[in-house]
């Protein structure tokens, strides 16, 4: 799993590496700059005059030949600006015509950034921010594409981007920004570490300058994978594409340790700060391990349905649980809906579960090892049956109505929850169960690092005492102990057509099926989220929820190798 490091953690790792004597800050900055230049040429090989196209022919240099290779580097007052000075120098050494505009006070630059400022000053002039309009000189040359490097602010952004109300920027910023957006269509924008104005820990929009390509170092940060819900741009929308470049900081040997332990070992307890989150990747390793260990016990899942006319959601979940490999799946239906469900199912089993008593009786069968309550269930039935499910201490998914039924008094739910439970709220359900946490999450940010969806999901999981999967294009999964993972259906894994009625029911079924197969709750939630998106991507646009379970075998076969 790749770790998503907060700004504080990244600084801690950098400091630890420098203190160990393995590397200097200046070397790290140089590697960061090299990484950016490499990423630019990988993204746009035509910018690299020494590269050849596949047929051995020189690339088309109409727009970028000779003296027309031009870059504008916008450098800020911290080490992000320092990286920018390195990029400027490296491009200059490759024959590019480079202009550097500096926002800040050279006397106050951090030491390594200052060295690179001086190095650039020895080559070319450092222009002040107010001179940014100098770019107008190129305006008559429409053939010219300019590469704009945003090195204003990176992980050190602590407040809203200066606006025209700010005394300091009032003279420069409006014209600079207007200009910036005018040329955007033609030019290529590259952000160093983050598009300036994106909060690295939360992805929140602090007045972001969106970009074409974002190049970050060592490890991605949560803000690269979270979707900001306020402002114009933030997180994923501003970054557009994220490339991670190794700068030789080494990777923590995770071994059997949690990533938190590994980070503590690397940097010391005090420096860790906020949570370590990881990025959910393919669950093939878990699935393989599982098939070795659980060959003979595939489990028996029970999905509770709603009444007549309300059974579709539970049937979708049940189909998902079955396809993901639960040995047996039973739909627990109220007697009045029995006929309706019986007409619709084949591989699934059916059991009458009319009330709490009937449910208790059914649960006397110890082979029933995973439960799912919520999809289409109705509030009244949820309020009656959820306590029974929780008393049984079975691995249980609570979704949809099983969450909203408790919005009046969430405490009555929380006091019954235990560590074998997974809650799967979407944004609305989350806000009903955790109104104060949701309010903190959605409050317009004033200073960085801002409260993030990672923070909110962890706080919810800690309060609930169980695993919480908070849905969205950026799904965050946290356990009660505080471990956390982000599963983002973004960039090359985008699947917007997954936002279709009933797809959440299938996800609940996938998680339940994996719980029946013996997966631990957080692992079940992570693997199910990954497979869910993979199914949507394999099907493509036009997807309806019914398609998700049906295409799953294809994905599982692929994982099998
Ligand atoms: N931590 C690491 O391991 C590495 C960091 N590097 C670079 O260093 C960057 C972080 O450097 P810094 O910590 O110096 O932070 P930044 O360079 O991102 O910004 C900090 C500076 O900006 C000012 N500032 C913050 N928000 C502002 C706002 N809204 N308006 C005006 N001024 C504002 C701060 O007062 C401070 O002077 C990274 O993003 C990355 O580009 C790289 O050199 C490679 C290694
Ligand atoms: N833009 C998006 N990209 C990818 N997945 C998304 C997006 N929006 C929502 N989803 C996913 O779609 C599912 C919708 O679930 P939910 O909101 O419960 O809907 P329903 O109740 O109709 O099933 C969730 O798994 C969520 O993570
Ligand atoms: K930047």
User: Which percent range describes the beta-strand content?
Assistant: 5-15%
Q: Separation of termini?
A: 19 Å
Discrete helix count: 21
CATH architecture of the largest domain: 3-Layer(aba) Sandwich
State the share of residues found in helices, binned by percent.
25-40%
The CATH homologous superfamily of the largest domain is named: Ribokinase
Domain YjeF C-terminal: 278-559
Domain YjeF N-terminal: 10-255
Catalytic activity: (6S)-NADPHX + ADP = AMP + phosphate + NADPH + H(+); (6R)-NADHX = (6S)-NADHX; (6R)-NADPHX = (6S)-NADPHX; (6S)-NADHX + ADP = AMP + phosphate + NADH + H(+)
Keywords: ATP-binding, Isomerase, Lyase, Metal-binding, Multifunctional enzyme, NAD, NADP, Nucleotide-binding, Potassium
């Amino acid at each position: 799993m790749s770790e998503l490091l907060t700004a504080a953690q990244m600084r801690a790792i950098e400091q630890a590496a420098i203190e160990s004597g393995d590397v200097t800050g200046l070397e790290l900055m140089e590697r960061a700059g090299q990484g950016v230049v490499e990423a630019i040429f990988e993204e746009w090989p035509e910018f690299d005059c020494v590269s050849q196209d596949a047929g051995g022919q020189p690339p088309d240099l109409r727009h970028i030949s000779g003296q027309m290779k031009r870059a504008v580097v916008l450098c800020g007052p911290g080490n992000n600006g320092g990286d920018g000075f390195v990029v400027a120098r490296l491009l200059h050494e490759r024959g590019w015509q480079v202009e550097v505009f500096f926002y800040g006070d050279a006397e106050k630059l951090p030491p390594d950034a200052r060295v690179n400022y001086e190095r650039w000053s020895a080559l070319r002039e450092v222009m002040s921010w107010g001179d940014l309009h100098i770019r107008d000189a190129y305006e008559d040359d429409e053939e010219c594409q300019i590469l704009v490097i945003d090195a204003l602010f990176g992980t050190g952004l602590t407040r809203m981007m200066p606006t025209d109300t700010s005394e300091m920027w009032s003279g420069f910023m409006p014209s600079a920004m207007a200009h910036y957006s005018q040329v955007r269509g033609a030019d290529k924008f590259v952000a160093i570490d983050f598009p300036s104005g994106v909060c690295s820990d939360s992805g929140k929009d602090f007045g972001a300058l969106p970009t074409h390509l974002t190049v970050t170092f060592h490890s991605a940060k949560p803000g690269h994978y979270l979707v900001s819900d306020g402002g114009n741009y933030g997180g994923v929308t501003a970054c557009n594409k994220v490339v991670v470049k190794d700068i030789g900081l080494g990777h923590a040997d995770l071994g059997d340790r949690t990533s938190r332990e590994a980070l503590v070992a690397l940097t010391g307890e005090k420096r860790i700060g906020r949570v370590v989150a990881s990025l959910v990747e393919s669950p093939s390793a878990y699935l393989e391990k599982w098939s070795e260990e659980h060959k003979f016990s595939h489990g028996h899942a029970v999905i509770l349905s709603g009444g007549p006319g309300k059974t579709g959601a539970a049937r979708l979940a049940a189909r998902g649980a079955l396809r993901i490999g639960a040995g047996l799946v039973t739909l627990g239906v109220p007697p009045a809906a029995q006929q309706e469900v019986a007409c619709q199912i084949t591989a699934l089993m059916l059991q009458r579960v009319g009330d709490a008593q009937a449910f208790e009786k059914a649960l006397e069968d110890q082979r029933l090892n995973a439960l799912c309550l919520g999809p289409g269930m109705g509030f009244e039935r949820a309020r009656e049956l959820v306590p029974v499910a929780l008393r049984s201490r079975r691995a249980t998914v609570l979704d949809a109505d099983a969450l909203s039924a408790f919005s009046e008094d969430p405490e009555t739910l929380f006091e019954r929850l235990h560590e074998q439970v997974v809650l799967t709220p979407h944004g609305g359900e989350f806000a009903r169960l955790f109104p104060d946490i949701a309010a903190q999450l959605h409050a317009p940010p004033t200073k960085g690092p801002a409260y993030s969806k990672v923070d909110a999901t962890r706080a919810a999981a800690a309060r609930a005492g169980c695993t919480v999967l908070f849905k969205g294009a950026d799904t965050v999964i946290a356990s009660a102990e505080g471990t956390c993972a982000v599963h983002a259906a973004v960039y090359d894994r985008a699947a917007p057509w997954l936002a279709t009625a009933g797809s959440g029911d299938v996800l609940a079924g996938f998680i339940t099926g994996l719980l029946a197969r013996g997966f631990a709750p957080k692992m079940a939630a992570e693997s199910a989220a990954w497979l869910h998106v993979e199914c949507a991507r394999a099907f493509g646009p036009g997807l309806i929820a019914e398609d998700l379970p049906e295409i799953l075998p294809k994905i599982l076969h692929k994982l099998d190798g």
